[in-house]
Amino acid sequence: MNARVVVADDQSVVSEGIVMLLGLLPGVEVVGSAKDGEEAVALVAELAPDVVLMDLRMPRCDGAEATRRIRRDHPGTQVVVLTTFADDDSLFPALQAGARGYLTKDAGGEEIVRAIQAVLSGEAGLSPSVQRRLLERVTTGPPPPLVPEPRLPDGLTPRELEVLVLIAEGLSNPEIARRLHISQATVKSHINNLFAKTGVRDRAQAVRYAYVRGLAQPPGSTVT
Fold it and tell me: What is the value of pTM for the model shown?
């Protein structure tokens, strides 16, 4: 089996490394690389690859949204997430969007090949750590319901909106991380994504954006 693969990652050094690694693996042919979700969707439409190795935290269109669009419009292409993050905020939206595989970027070449082969055979290609996380979630409670996310301005995700509102409240990154029970690295990633989507350059502009669009209330204001 020779799998035709597109790599989607916004960090060029990471993307080039993945492409180089895949080029050394048997049964894998890299046919294209994308620097964000929008480009990944366009490449799938153009090249019809068997699999997309999809990063999650990317500008313009994140990996979960790109996965949702690919699986909706190009069901013959499978998606394997290849990301740094394995937290619930990353894992479950990606799986709900239609990803059949989920690996972290410390995965070796053999593990990537196994995941690609698994999804092309109709199975799940999940890393051991992700399998453990899913088992933990099953034993502690049901997964989030498969419901469509509300449409938010500029393609913001619900979590990015939460972060934006907390920025408008004046919280620092460590305070946001504690409030949402996520890492500071994840907070920074959400902020970078929402800045890119909304076109703001700093926190002050982000606060103004939130006020103008009614996503947050200025201090001392009252809701009528």
Answer: 0.60
Token pair recorded at residue 189 = 């990633």
Could you give the C-alpha distances from 211 to 30, 193, 218, in angstroms and in order? 45, 19, 7
Sequence letter at residue 147: V
Backbone angles phi, psi at 122, to 5 degrees: 85, 10
Q: How far apart are CA 98 and CA 105, in angstroms?
A: 19
Rounded distance, CA 9 to CA 62, Å? 10
Query: Which neighbouring-strand residues pair with 83?
Result: 104
Q: Which residues contact 210 (CB under 8 A, 6 or more apart)?
A: 164, 165, 167, 168, 216
CA distance 162 to 192: 14
pLDDT in tens, 47-90: 999 999 999 888 888 899 999 999 999 999 999 998 887 676 77
In whole angstroms, give the CA distance from residue 106 to residue 17: 12
CA 65 to chain centre: 7
Are 3 and 116 within 8 A, CB to CB?
A: yes
Amino acid at 107: A
pLDDT per position as a tens digit, 177-217: 999 888 888 899 999 999 999 999 999 999 999 999 888 88
Burial label for 86, CB within 10 Å (0-12, 13-18, 19+), is: middle
Rounded to 10 deg, the angle between the 37-47 and 63-73 helix axes is: 20
